[in-house]
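Q: Hi! First time asking for a complex rather than a single chain. Here are the components, and I think there are three in total. Is that enough to go on?
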Amino acid sequence: MKADLSKLLQRKKKQILESWIQHQLVDETLREDLMSNEELREQSEELVNALLKSLSDKVFADADAPELEPVYEILAGISISRARQGFSPKETGLYVFSLKNALQEVLDEEAKDDPQFLYDSIKRINKLMDNLGVLTFETYIKGREEVILRQTDEITEISTPVIRVWDGILALPIIGTLDSARTQVVMENLLQEIVNTGSTIAILDISGVPAVDSLVAQHLIKTVSATRLMGAECIISGIRPEIAQTVVHLGIDLSNIVTKASLASALKYAFGLMKLDVKRIQKDIKS
Amino acid sequence: MDRIPILRMGRFLLVTIQIDLYDRLATNLESDLVQMVNKTGARGVLIDISALSIVDSFMGRILGNIGSMSKIMDAETVVVGMQPAVAITLIELGLELKGVHTALNVEKGMELLQEKIGADDLDDPDEDSAE
Amino acid sequence: MKIVLNKDAMLIVKEQDVVPFRNRVKEYAVKIGMSLVNQTKLITAASELVRNMLKYGGGGQTLIEVITQGRDSGIRLTFIDKGPGIKNIADAMKDGFSTGKSLGLGLPGTKRLVNEFDIKSVVGEGTTVTILKWKHG
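A: Yes, that's all I need. Here is the structure of the assembled complex.
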């Protein structure tokens, strides 16, 4: 008698699910701190449902069969969310491989008296589950990479604060190397802040930038031009002697840009543009 | 044919572009504005582009044209409210909108026009041609 | 490897088609979560190329595709016209070059706005321009 593996497994769905969950619950890698048992059960049930529904002889033969798409999708979702929640790779991997055990146990019982069928079926299940395992790893890593990328974005965000130094004057101290990606973030933040605050003057302080080459200079010139297009003025301050030297040696033309040696002198210049006068209060003689 | 309305406010003309333009609409605006400057003897033109999500080289050229044409008819042009993303794109494209002044918003644009025209009576008008 | 997730075609025959085309491109860019600045660059580039297509090619076919490669995704636009073609592409890609009455910023400026730019042209048969902008480009 030739039994149909897919049908057999589909019939035994409840048993497979129970067995799988039992496997997971007794496993020491169970992370009750990260995920409740109900949640785990729900997740597992969804995956088993989708997997068993998609099964057919065709699926066992072809790992790229379109029927498997929903399974892959659910599994990818699970492993990405596990990566974000802080599960270790081992825990995430065992989650999937324990399903293999559950499937094999059910088979062991059902096909005791047909060794040939049992052998074939185990082979096919192995192949399928290995595929799912590989996918789990891949998406898990992807999830982790996303976390890293998000952190990188956050660092970029943190490292370019726009400070309102006076009513109508913004300052942006740049610390660290300026590359194209960072200039874009700096430029966007600065311009958005100009709109938000209605400031007419922006000071870009580059005293924290280790070196200025022609590319960085290009970026600075672009930032100044964009600021002017929006109707604000941009001053570059913090030009250290070394920077002045390299700029001239490289033949970079900064003559269209207002440059100042220090943030203080840039601020003074900005006050001038805004027709503000800052002066020391004369001590009242009577008091 | 669709047209962008031009409002008259004292010595100034006011244009608010509220929809994304196709080229014909932009060329019409250019000729309408020049006609209006002539008819009303306006001394300033204020164009609010805060609702424009893109300005490409054609639209940039139209804005520049309006600036230059008004200039030789003795009116100053201020473009106000350019979105940050639009400004960054224009710079990358290589367009600097020569011939027009820019301001952050309508209020600041009006102040700038008042200033330019006030200064006009005393100084040579060529001195305030900023980039 | 680049994988095409979504494909959409639009015919451009008159100037008024440009605005709906730009809106369609924007829709896709928003859908994949492209930043506002990159959206603006992409749409501006698209606007330049559509204009060229109308002016020199008398309109043509456009293709909007959503692309993924690894964990990055982006939008690819293709502009196909059956116009006279461009005789010297190297010249056309130079800043300040124009046969029409424009600033000559068209092609080189457009190239600066996107991550990938490809132009093929056969004189007498037409021109095909393909641009690609990554989400985080």
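A: Strands of chain C lie at 3-12, 60-69, 72-81, 116-122, 126-134. Let me know if you'd like any chain examined more closely.
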